User: Which sequence fits this backbone?
């Protein structure tokens, strides 16, 4: 299986040996019989493979983990109840009080909020290297570097190979939150990154009906993150949710193609509209890192488009957002349905006004998650909403 489209369907799954079922069965069981005291003891000691209790693992969840490890090119993966749980487990498993985490932002507001409130309370130093650049921010205490290859919400790009080389020269682990790109468009491990984090809630699920997260990377790291995140924190993904992600991922490459096509058309339309000051989309030649996008992204530039209105105040953004008919006004992203949000008052309301300003998240910014509807209908909706601004 060499092609991603084939692996998205088949990796991690095979017909159920008991029934022949092709869809992965939902194994709805809390405990798993291990048969003998000796085998139970060996499983609990980590000396034998096997399921024991739902918090530690489940066959439906394991199939999802295997599928995602395959798609990301990783040795192993572990699933969580949300992307935020995956982030928290990675940080808490691999860092100690006194360690420094350096991030290249801007980041999803919830991630930055988590790092600052939880991380700093537990004795981590958290440093934002966005303005200074990574090399200048690294110190002897730096143990982890966190990056979003395509940032939320401003859609800036980070050069993953350069980040990995700089961080590794200082002995730091690198983590890339690949939620916006998915393995269809970017595989961070192939660029030298150590761990990939996902909010599966977004493109991987794809239908806006399941919440989950995942970390993929080397087996030794994943074993540590699994122990902390599942064994100690208990942020385990439920089997029913794992089933929805397994089903969603089968069509991920097809959906990403439609998201990319629609987003490119929407971005080109917005770039020529007089009410729009700036369009952030890595597929536009005007994007400052278009050359990096061509090098680092494969098969398209993603389904997210962020715009800044010529009138930069909140009331202008409200005028446009409140007039949209086809785009639902909601946070989250990556659904087949198109969504639109005002990052300053929602996804990035968790970070300080200063950090928002530094990240370029202004009151006139609108973030679009372009769904798989026909691009002409999406453009018509945006056109009438922008026209209401001029009226
Ligand atoms: C959002 N983002 O609308 P969960 N990493 C990235 C993300 O964008 C997110 C997470 C992790 C949004 C959610 S905002 C109230 C809604 C790049 C989530 C966290 O824990 O599965 O939500 O993932 O930008």
Assistant:
């Amino acid at each position: 299986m060499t092609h991603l489209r084939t692996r998205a369907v088949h990796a991690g799954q095979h017909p159920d040996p008991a029934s022949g079922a092709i869809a992965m069965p939902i194994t709805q069981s809390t405990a798993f019989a291990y048969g003998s005291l000796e085998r139970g003891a060996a499983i609990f000691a980590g000396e034998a493979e096997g399921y024991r209790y739902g918090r530690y693992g489940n066959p439906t969840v394991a199939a999802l983990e295997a599928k995602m490890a395959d798609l990301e090119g990783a040795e192993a993966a572990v699933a969580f109840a949300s992307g935020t749980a995956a982030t928290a487990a990675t940080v808490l498993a691999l860092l100690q009080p006194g360690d420094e985490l350096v991030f290249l932002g801007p980041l999803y507001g919830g991630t930055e909020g988590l790092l600052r409130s939880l991380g700093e309370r537990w004795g981590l130093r958290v440093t934002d290297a966005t303005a200074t650049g990574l090399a200048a921010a690294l110190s002897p205490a730096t143990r982890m570097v966190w990056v979003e290859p395509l940032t939320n919400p401003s859609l800036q790009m980070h050069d993953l190979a350069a980040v990995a080389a700089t961080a590794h020269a200082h002995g730091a682990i690198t983590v890339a939150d690949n939620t916006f790109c998915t393995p269809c468009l970017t595989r961070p491990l192939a660029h030298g990154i150590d761990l990939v984090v996902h909010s599966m809630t977004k493109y991987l699920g794809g239908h806006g009906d399941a919440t989950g997260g995942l970390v993929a990377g080397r087996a030794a790291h994943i074993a540590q993150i699994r122990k902390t995140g599942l064994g100690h924190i208990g942020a385990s993904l439920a089997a029913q949710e794992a089933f929805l992600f397994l089903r969603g991922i089968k069509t991920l490459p097809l959906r990403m193609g439609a998201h990319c096509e629609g987003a490119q058309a929407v971005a080109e339309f917005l770039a020529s509209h007089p009410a729009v000051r700036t369009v952030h989309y890595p597929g536009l030649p005007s994007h400052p890192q278009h050359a990096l996008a061509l090098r680092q992204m494969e098969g398209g530039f993603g389904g997210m488009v962020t715009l800044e209105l010529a009138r930069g105040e909140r009331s202008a953004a409200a005028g446009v957002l409140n007039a949209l008919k086809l785009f639902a006004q909601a946070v989250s992203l990556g659904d087949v349905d198109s969504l639109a949000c005002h990052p300053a008052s929602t996804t990035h309301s968790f970070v300080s006004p200063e950090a928002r300003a530094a990240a370029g998240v202004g009151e006139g910014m609108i973030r679009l998650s372009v769904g798989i509807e026909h691009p002409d209908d999406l453009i018509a909706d945006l056109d009438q909403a922008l026209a209401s601004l001029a009226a």
Notes: The chain has two domains: 4-250, 252-390. The two ends are 55 Å apart (CA to CA). The CA atoms of residues 51 and 58 lie 7 Å apart.
